[in-house]
Amino acid sequence: MDPVAFKYLGAGLACIGMGLAAMGVGNIFGNFLSGALRNPSAADGQFARAFIGAALAEGLGIFCLVVALVLLFT
Amino acid sequence: MASPIEQFQIKPIIPAIGFTNSSLFMVGAAALIVGGLMFASRKRAIVPGRSQSVAEMLHEFVAGTLKDATGADGMKFFPLVFSLFMFVLTANLLGMIPGFFTVTSHVIVTFALALLVIGTVVVYGFIKHGTHFLGLFSPPGVPGWLLPFIIVIEVISFLSRPISLSLRLFANMLAGHIALKVFAGFVVALLGAGGAIAFLAPLPLLMAVALMAFEFFVAVLQAYVFTVLTCIYLNDALHPGH
């Protein structure tokens, strides 16, 4: 196989990491929602914290996207 | 058909002073913020009108976020945090107008903003606490033999902060705009195919409309996330040592 094919394969493999980050973000919001349904009065105070956790988890998936984009467009 | 990343191309407008379309939209965003806030606060009414209410809500929102994260003594950073929030928010939302350039979709812009934040944290932390600021890297209650590893990990995590802060904002805006362009390209390709296939063209158009709404949500959310993380990092400079 020629190197260009490996470049596209690498970009595709890097996207697996984005799926894993999606699992992390889903986990955070799923747990936030189940906690919020048990104790709705405490939910508003923890809303910002849920978003911070989601942002941190999402950031690692974003790194995968950047790796894929660098492979595709350079 | 045009490539989906063609929209991020930087074109010089006044080459002599290096003024590009990116600079134009940065100046535009800054002018919009200053002009909008001055217009909103021109009357300084006790009972605010519509525009003054919006300005006050933005102010209260950022002030509340900063106070929650850093406490009352963090309010001296309010001008920095408010400027960052307004600039990122305005630049993100300006980029959502079709045909407009998205300033925050370039990593150099967001990285400069992130370096400003981390530079403020480091400089202020050393001025305020001196060498005690290095206590940030050694959490209390760690057994002695573990300490070298913990310090290495904490230093790496501190150094990766400006990278993750800038990449998150940049990649979110970049990926969103590429996705919009790709779905818009599907509409053109299906219409161009002709015959019965052309009747499928409204489907990606609906998806593009839904993505557009989602992108507005992301534009506001990423400005908020950038602000919250800035507040948390500033809290480290104000109160190091966990």
TrEMBL record, chain A:
Coiled coil: none annotated. GO terms for molecular function: lipid binding; proton-transporting ATP synthase activity, rotational mechanism. It is found in: Cell membrane; Membrane. One of its GO terms (cellular component) is plasma membrane. NCBIfam families: PRK07558.1. HAMAP family: ATP_synth_c_bact (MF_01396). Belongs to the ATPase C chain family. PANTHER family: ATP SYNTHASE LIPID-BINDING PROTEIN, MITOCHONDRIAL (PTHR10031), ATPASE PROTEIN 9 (PTHR10031:SF0). This is ATP synthase subunit c. It comes from Microvirga brassicacearum. The gene is atpE.
